[in-house]
Each structure stands twice: as C-alpha cells, then as structure tokens.
Write a structure and sequence with these properties.
The chain has 13 helices and no strands. By secondary structure, it is mostly helical.
C-alpha cells in the first residue's frame, strides 16, 4: 500500500504539543417504603415531591441542539493536538486514512499558528468551563476534552526523554504512539456522536476528573 502523505505537510507546521502546559428500587418485603404516600410525607407534600422529580429529569445534563454542537466540536481539540501520534497507523490502514483525510485542512490551520493548542486550552477552560452561562452539559463535555488533551503531556514527555532510533525501543514507541492515537480517535467518534444524539458521553480515565471540575 502506498504511504499516505497526510502527515507530511502537517509536519512542517510543527506537531509538538503545547508548552509546559452521575433506581428505581423495588422491595417485595417492604413495599410500603416505596409508595408515593410515604415519599410525599418525607418531602412534605405530593406537589413538592413531584416538583423535585421534574427538576431532576430536566436537569443540567439535558441539551438542546446548540449545546450538542458545541460539545461535539470540543472533542476535535485533543484529536487535532495529538494527530502526530497517528503517523504510523494512518500510513498503514486505509480506513483510518479515510476518516482523517477530510480533517486535513482543519488540522493544518490548527497546527499552522504557534501555541494554538495552548490558546485553545485557555479559551475552552476560562470562557466555557468557568462560564455559568453555558449549560453543565457543555461545560462537562468541554472539560472532558481538556483533560484528555492534558493527558497527552505524558506520551510527549516519554518521547522526549527516550527518543529511540531503532530496535526494540523504536517498536515500543511506535506501539505507544499508535495506542494513543487510536484512543484519541475512539474518544472523538464516541464523544462527538453521543453529543450529537443528545447523550452524555463519559470517557474512560477522564470523566471523573472532568466532573470534579464542573460545579
């Protein structure tokens, strides 16, 4: 298979990273514990109880179309910032090439301006995550994308520290890069598609950390 040249022009723009940088219970033995009368007494009256249920079902995890679009777009940030980790996978697998190829113009723009990743990080964190005017849905998804991008510091440091030229070390580094890239790709597809469908994606590793940052 011919080598895919998508990363070749991108590489000239600098692929390095930014600088140091939420049951229903059922009991046959105690059915009275689950009756509306019992619950309504607990909350004072039935009307107040119903209000609490409605408030929870219409909570801040719901999203309208603009919120879905904004949240879906946020997951492109860590993917663009870590595109260099796909240099081995993209050249070897055509399905991955087909996914990445339409994104090349946006990747070039992202990589063409120095410190773009760091500026996007600051913008997303202070303008979106810390802004109560945005729904919690948007702020949570944005924070997930930010945490995912911050985690890219670790493989970057590993590459800078060892930088093997051949042998087993190079094979291990290629495997690490490919694993990081595939993880970013899965997070992009899962996160963005879930947001477009109005669902709340919870990414492995980063979801709990993101939740602690979103009040």
């Amino acid at each position: 298979m011919a080598n895919f040249s998508i990363l070749s022009p991108v590489a000239f723009y600098g692929l390095s990273h930014k600088p140091f940088k939420s049951t229903f219970l059922f009991s046959r033995d105690y059915p009275s514990l689950l009756t509306p009368n019992t619950l309504s007494k607990k909350f004072g009256n039935a009307h107040r109880f119903r209000s609490l249920i409605v408030a929870k079902s219409n909570g801040s995890d719901s999203a309208d179309i603009p919120d879905r679009l904004i949240s879906a777009l946020c997951y492109f940030y860590p993917f663009f910032d870590g595109i260099q980790y796909g240099k081995y996978v993209i050249n070897q697998f055509y399905p991955v090439q087909a996914i990445v190829e339409p994104l090349v113009p946006a990747i070039r723009v992202f990589k063409s301006v120095p410190f773009t990743g760091f500026l996007v990080f600051l913008t997303l964190y202070f303008v979106v995550v810390r802004n109560p005017n945005f729904s919690r849905y948007v702020r949570f998804n944005t924070m997930q994308a930010i945490v995912l991008d911050v985690l890219l510091i670790f493989p970057d440091l590993l590459e800078r520290s060892f930088n093997p030229r051949g042998g087993l070390g190079l094979d291990l580094m290629m495997s690490l890069d490919s694993t990081v890239f595939l993880f970013l790709l899965v997070c992009l597809i899962y996160g963005s598609s879930s947001c477009l469908l109005g669902q709340l994606p919870r990414l492995p590793i980063v979801a709990e950390a993101a939740e602690r940052q979103v009040l």
